[in-house]
């Protein structure tokens, strides 16, 4: 049974989808939900689900990302996870952190990678005139949103879509895709999957 630490910064909707998927027969179990934001909505949700929670606030560290990440690693390693899932964790991680968890860390990104790395993905897809948008789960490497893609889910872009309406349609697909990829990843299966 693989142990999973889930890192969040906000409401934790993808964290909830992951944790709920791990109830019953599943090759993994959540061992920690950690946020860099004290009071993040997802922490209360995790506590209500009986999952250990922790906060490592990035603000006291100022611009010292290495010191923040050292504290982050210390707290994560205390939970002894096999897999790290980034689920709306809004901090760019340094190569030191990424190397420490190399081959064990997943992230979900709201675009069809390699398109639209970074922020404002839905607005950029609409502005480009794309017919489809979606989300991707990928292994985390030192390149931002650049690791091997393990799964994608697609939705059509409607002519009257805004970034907000598109995001609302993509989010339920994130909640389907991430748990499926995690279940496969926990068994060592890295074969990419595609959902519609």
From TrEMBL:
Location of the active site: 109
Broad EC category: transferase
Reactions mediated catalytically: N(1)-(5-phospho-beta-D-ribosyl)glycinamide + (6R)-10-formyltetrahydrofolate = N(2)-formyl-N(1)-(5-phospho-beta-D-ribosyl)glycinamide + (6S)-5,6,7,8-tetrahydrofolate + H(+)
EC number(s) per entry: 2.1.2.2
Pfam families for the chain: Formyl_trans_N
Domain of life of the organism encoding this protein: Bacteria
Binding locations of (6R)-10-formyltetrahydrofolate: 65, 90-93, 107
Annotated CDD domains: FMT_core_GART
Keyword Transferase: yes
Keywords assigned: Purine biosynthesis, Transferase
Site feature: Raises pKa of active site His: 145
GO molecular function terms attached to this record: phosphoribosylglycinamide formyltransferase activity
Residues annotated to bind N(1)-(5-phospho-beta-D-ribosyl)glycinamide: 12-14
Domain Formyl transferase N-terminal: 2-182
Listed pathway(s): Purine metabolism; IMP biosynthesis via de novo pathway; N(2)-formyl-N(1)-(5-phospho-D-ribosyl)glycinamide from N(1)-(5-phospho-D-ribosyl)glycinamide (10-formyl THF route): step 1/1
Family membership: Belongs to the GART family.
Biological role stated in the UniProt entry: Catalyzes the transfer of a formyl group from 10-formyltetrahydrofolate to 5-phospho-ribosyl-glycinamide (GAR), producing 5-phospho-ribosyl-N-formylglycinamide (FGAR) and tetrahydrofolate.
Protein name: Phosphoribosylglycinamide formyltransferase
Gene: purN
